[in-house]
Amino acid sequence: MIKIAICDDDVIILNHTKEIIESYKIKDLQIYSYKNGEELLESEETFDIIFLDIDMNGINGIETAKKIRIYDKKVKIIYVTNYTDYTYSAFSVHAFGYLIKPIKEKNLHEQLDEALSYMKEDEECLIDFITEGELVRVDIKKIYYFEYISRKILMKTSEKTYIIRDKISAISDKMKDLGFEMPHKSFVVNLYNVKSIKGYDIYMMDESIIPLSQKKSSEFRNALNIYLSNHIEKQIRG
């Protein structure tokens, strides 16, 4: 269920926006309506998408969004307004989109298409590992690297380090298609979390430094370049 909020102090526009959303091709939507920023902020609901009027009585849309961003960094905020001079302020609160009144069905539906596309990419990709005595499920993006040491595999994540009993070659095979590469016989690293390469040192986002073997240098650098190119192209396509 996708949860959508509409916040506008003009009841006619509020209802019109709701009708357009209800006509969207995906029907599994839960829509909430609010007549001002105060009502929205007082709500205990969390949303996937918010259509937010900027020029409202009381607390305006920019200030409302700033307060929302304190507790929710992920919600897609799409501004709706009569004016075009709020763009800079909208970017300051990481607005996802911008619609000019009167709202056209085509434009709003395109915004929904884009927002749902990004939400799909933002979903956690979870993978299971057997650690010492338990099964753990980890978000791939939170894994920095695997290190083979003392006949064990250390899995370093943003939350903790796990011990896995396995072969580093098996880990490499398991993670290969998920954006992981083997720069050294004792390491498998997450390309998503590579910060930079200097000489034969790989600098990770957690400030770890992973050795890059001369033998694997060319292959690893090529894999990283392809990964980054695909990632940038995906962002450009939106």
Describe, in plain words, how this protein is organized in 3D.
The protein has 7 helices and 15 strands. With 238 residues, the protein is an alpha/beta fold. The protein has 2 domains: 2-122, 3-Layer(aba) Sandwich (Rossmann fold), CATH 3.40.50.2300; 126-237, OB fold (Dihydrolipoamide Acetyltransferase, E2P) (Beta Barrel). Strands 2-1-3-4-5 form a 5-stranded parallel β-sheet. Strands 10-9-8-12-11 form a 5-stranded antiparallel β-sheet. It is elongated, with a radius of gyration of 23 Å.
Report a brief summary of the structure:
Residues 127-226 form the HTH LytTR-type domain. By secondary structure, the chain is of the alpha/beta class.
Question: What descriptors fit this protein?
Answer:
238 residues; alpha/beta; Rossmann fold; OB fold (Dihydrolipoamide Acetyltransferase, E2P); five-stranded antiparallel β-sheet; 15 strands; elongated; LytTR_DNA-bd_dom
Mean pLDDT, all residues: 89
User: Gap between N and C termini, in Å?
Assistant: 22 Å
Determine Rg (CA atoms, Å).
23 Å
**Morphology:** elongated
Total strand segments: 15
Q: Quickly count the domains.
A: 2
- The main sheet orders its strands as 2-1-3-4-5
Helix/strand class: alpha/beta
Order of helices and strands: EHEHEHEHEHEEEEEHEEEEEH
Helicity level: 25-40%
| Beta-strand percentage range | 25-35%
Looking at CATH, the homologous superfamily of the largest domain is Response regulator
User: If you consult CATH, what is the topology of the largest domain?
Assistant: Rossmann fold
Task: Give the biggest beta sheet.
Answer: 5 strands, parallel
CATH hierarchy: architecture of the largest domain: 3-Layer(aba) Sandwich
Low-confidence stretches: none
Instruction: Quickly count the helices.
Output: 7
CATH class of the largest domain: Alpha Beta
